[in-house]
TrEMBL record, chain B:
Species whose genome carries this gene: Streptomyces filamentosus (Streptomyces roseosporus)
Highest classification ranks of the organism: Bacteria, Bacillati, Actinomycetota, Actinomycetes, Kitasatosporales
Family: Belongs to the thiolase-like superfamily. Beta-ketoacyl-ACP synthases family.
PANTHER family in alphabetical order: POLYKETIDE BETA-KETOACYL SYNTHASE 2-RELATED, POLYKETIDE SYNTHASE-RELATED
Domain Ketosynthase family 3 (KS3), chain residue ranges per copy: 2-403
Gene3D superfamilies: 3.40.47.10
Full protein name: Actinorhodin polyketide putative beta-ketoacyl synthase 2
UniProtKB/TrEMBL annotation, chain C:
The species this protein was found in: Streptomyces filamentosus
Domain of life: Bacteria
The keyword Phosphoprotein is assigned to this record: yes
Keywords carried by this UniProt record: Phosphopantetheine, Phosphoprotein
Domain Carrier: 1-82
Statement: the UniProt record of this protein carries the keyword Phosphoprotein: yes
GO process terms (BP): antibiotic biosynthetic process
Protein name: Actinorhodin polyketide synthase acyl carrier protein
GO molecular function per UniProt: phosphopantetheine binding
Amino acid sequence: MGRRVVITGVGVLAPGGIGTKNFWSLLSEGRTATRGITFFDPSQFRSQVAAEVDFAPELHGLTPQEIRRMDRAAQFGVVAAREALADSGLDLAGFDPHRTGVTIGSAVGATTGLDDEYRIVSDDGRLDLVDHTYAPQHLYNYFVPSSFSAEVAWAVGAEGPATVVSTGCTSGLDSVGHAVELIREGTADVMITGATDAPISPITMACFDAIKATTPRNDDPEHASRPFDGTRNGFVLGEGSAVFVLEELESARRRGAHIYAEIAGYASRCNAFHMTGLRPDGREMSEAINVAMAEARMNPESIDYINAHGSGTKQNDRHETAAFKLSLGDHAYRTPVSSIKSMVGHSLGAIGSIEIAASVLAMEHHVVPPTANLHTPDPECDLDYVPLHAREHRTDAVLTVGSGFGGFQSAMVLARPERSAA
Amino acid sequence: MSAKAVVTGIGVATPNGLGVDDFWAATRVGKNAIERVTRFDPEQYPSRLAGEIRGFEAEKHLPSRLIPQTDRMTRLALVAADCAFEDAGVQPGDIPEFDMGVVTASTSGGFEFGQNELKKLWSQGSQYVSAYQSFAWFYAVNSGQISIRNGMRGPSGVVVSDHAGGLDAIAQARRQIRKGSKLIFSGGFDASICPWGWVAQIAGGRLSTSDDPDRAYLPFDAAAGGYVPGEGGALLILEDERTARERGADNVYGEIAGYGATFDPKPGSGREPGLRRAIEVALADAGVEAGDVDVVFADAAGTPRLDREEADAITAVFGPSGVPVTAPKTMIGRLYSGAAPVDVVTALLAIREGLVPPTTNVELSPAYDIDLVVGQPRPTSIRTALVLARGYGGYNSAVVVRATD
Amino acid sequence: MSTQFTIDDLKRILLEGAGAEEGVDLDGDILDTDFEELGYESLALLETGSRIEREFGIALDDDVFTDNRTPRALVAAINETLSALVPQA
């Protein structure tokens, strides 16, 4: 067996929970962080709710220069990376910086910064030939989201392979999956990896309005995100970041690191069907799950908990329910499944990493987070979705999945290293 | 022993040629395609030259259903994908769906599409924003659209590392071939020559302000003063060599033999930039010595500091004037994520013909100890080529391309 | 003056917002053909719906395309919405 990859540090910045401790309190108490949008006047939009992070970058050690040149999503990523590195107890000074890499996932990059700057250079859309004299130098950092990985690399002192992974709403899983491969193949020894997105801006609200993907449940924002519930009618946009420190297992053991979980298996597939639509049979997601389980050398019965994509759109929740049944058979009915998007919303590319964080915290505590707001189950979603309240449950292996525009379907298996040694 | 990833199909769209034949015919002789911007009136901007693709009519190549939902860069990529399939002699149905994937790079996504929707949002209101804005501008769109159009359901992905991303995508495609996929599409396309994209590129502070197409993009020249942006890119079909031979592939252009990537130290650290290390990692990965490399395709940033760093790295690895170096992108400008895949294509065609295409317009500054191929193409036997690409912020990637026979 | 929404309006808006599927002739007899058979999936119909809303100044139900699966049914439904508009004094 080749090099195995483990998570030794976690940093999270989620709506209602900055820092892993606050994040886990929110999830384990089943509280929701969705609310009426406060960042701008949302009155022209069909959907006016979101899961916003109350974030003051200067309180997290960012300098005025850093705050000015970084989009909000980049700021999130740097703060989460620093937390993860501190949590890992790893002193990167003892490592060859060329063997430490960075992959950061993001679906929409600096879209919020771009929206703001566009208004200025175009004079609110009046100018076709937008005015470059109003453009700040950091507009190029917004133009190319690889600035996110650059900022994280600078923040931690990494000089190995770096990139941004941008596969829409599976970016947060695919970024970490990419990092795992770099350690396995021997290109890197340590990877700082995760994802960030800060998409709550007028242009993003408008584009999801146009396809009626976000919920119009504006009169009850705290209960607006309703995955697997029969009354669900769209997702709630969120924001945030989660970043991890990944190390090779033996080297992590040698330094006595706390090991949260091994990333035992990962795979991604495409539906090759539609940019926003899903085939109802869940076949591609099932294929990704099967390959991830095979890579982890685990059978369906070993999976203790499924952290679902559970966006709360009509088609998604049925699609992945079908995929779980295809891959896990009867065991799907015996396995708790939950969607933390009910509490922290859907932060597009970031959420896959935030859900990895939720999964490893579930393993730490042997507690499965709930699906909030699930009162009236959809008859076509007939698994155990852990409604409303967290549940004590022995959790040694977790399957976490994502599904996104472009047709990407990804799956990751996290497990205690001693369990998946097989 | 890992599978050998070979290139068996090419789709290319650049300012000096659509399709492999046109592109190579122009590139081998150094045909300049840099001209004044025509896609909007550039008069008011400090930079006014670009490498534009002229005469591309997407409607002639793509179903009308795809037109309203695609940015220009996606249309170019979809047409290039069709060409690459044809070049490889593969029909989309020939290979099982889950054994084929798409890994592309992007720099700025569908920026022109985004510009148009931002304009509608702020000048007319949110209800005027297109339903396609939810994906047409985003970085993952080309991988998604190519997979849909061609029924490719296997491992796929998208990377963004500014101008270096195209090599990172090809390396990721090679990983998937090694893990057992039969065919992976890889490369990158960008096309952000629109006012909003132009202003963002100007903000980066590296664009040439010259109005003379022959004196605007001059890497390694004493007069280097920035680069000229271009549009386009290339898509390559990678296959496992054995399965390609078994199916009787007509074109086996060469092997993606090695790859290395690093990130520069934080500015101000005083530490050496990462490019030399990236080259060394790529050579070691390919199992070749510096002396085995027959030509280097330089990143050729065109700004004095970056040219200096690159020349130093090349000299450190190969010795003073130790290897022919060229930068054919001087003909077409920098194509962002498309730049490096186009250089990989050029390297493969250079191997095939035994000819190093020239760095056009440049007079080598005596400050650099490199053997830059300027003026005329240079005939020489080429078995191994090194392609370099660097991205804003500190990205360095290197790929070794090698003849297969 | 009451505005009418015609099949030609629909064809024009479909073409502008979503193009036409290869092998489908919108000038043929399409009135009773399901939108899906004409090659328009939900996304294309959402784009079409919002273009109709903007051009004709009306608000369509979320379900208008699920309830009206053919051009004939849709044209009728939109005309019903139009005729229900009370002219402003």
